Amino acid sequence: MMPSAANVRPQAGGQRFLFGGVEIELLGAAGFSYELPPDHARFLGRDGASPSVPRVTCSVRRDPALLRDDRDDREIVLQEHDLQTTGVRAHLQPLSHNSWAVSARVAPGAHNLGRLLDALSAAIVERSGGLLVHAAGVELDGHAYLFVGPSGAGKTTAAGQVFGARSFCVDRAVVMPSAQGWRVHALPGGTDPIDRAPDSRNVTLPLGGILRVKQASTVDAHPLAPHEAVMTVRESVFSADRDEVSERKRLDTIATLATEVPLMRLDSVLGAPLAQTLRRLERA
Amino acid sequence: MSALPRLQQSKRLAARVIDGKGVVIVIDRQEVHTLNGVGMRVFELAEGRTVEEIAACLVEEFDVSHERAVSDAKTFVEDLIGMGALEASVTP
After folding, report:
1. Most exposed of A58, A107, A193, B91 (fewest Cβ within 10 Å)?
2. Alpha-carbon distance A172 to nearest alpha carbon in chain B (angstroms)
3. ipTM metric
4. Structure pTM?
């Protein structure tokens, strides 16, 4: 059964769910009782995922001293085995190639438990060969399509113009390789809802394509040159782990992604429907 | 006579040739740059060389005069240093 906001809280017996492509089991210390924020509840998936999904067992305890944290809200920093973001400190201990034991301290407040999940997903995804992408996404015909580009490029607007699609994510998604091809895991975040589109009922979908949005006079989609595709994706990727080895691994991952998934420049016109353009992309 | 600066690639970067073009990520600035084929070759040649030595390689590999090679290499090396992809050091 998919957990909901009402029943996701770390407890002695553990609470297990999928979040951002990672299976997370939260174990709360005695007296730890606050809930996950509602905006994270939509993005929880079922447990019992495939063995290739990275797994984390995370013990959590409350640390009021972290309330004084004045770090940047969105920044997640992973150095060696130590993970930091606002209101969250965690130590990651690798147990195998795709499982970790984590000990976390979290400032009081439900939103800080959400930040812990965000940070865990970002860190484990990076260590597992995936990417955390700044994108608006839609579900269309069983695939996820991600719209990327700098702030103001029209990602969310373009996503809202895929009439008949469902909103998959507004601000961030995880892209992970799997035996079945590249898959996308939706994440919470973003304040600008995609109008007109109902929410997707899925949190994980096959990746149909990544589209770099540009405003134009006619709607069209053009394949990006390989180096443009790599540059486009890298500019849209968040990186928590900034050591050289991780950055080179990330670049290799993006280069592989660019050869296996349609990466296009989408010429978009305000208000013009985009679903057929995406469907042509899928057929191609 | 002062020694010419010897160049080296920054350790804090990731670079890869993709379809003949270079993609260079300067980690500390979180900047992504693309280099054309010649630019990527200059970047590769720069490791452990001076501008004069890079220019000598370019003369051998491309149909270009020595003066033009020195001028272009100097300009481009300055760009690469400015973007944080190369570092220059003077060694005796």
Report:
1. B91
2. 18
3. 0.84
4. 0.88
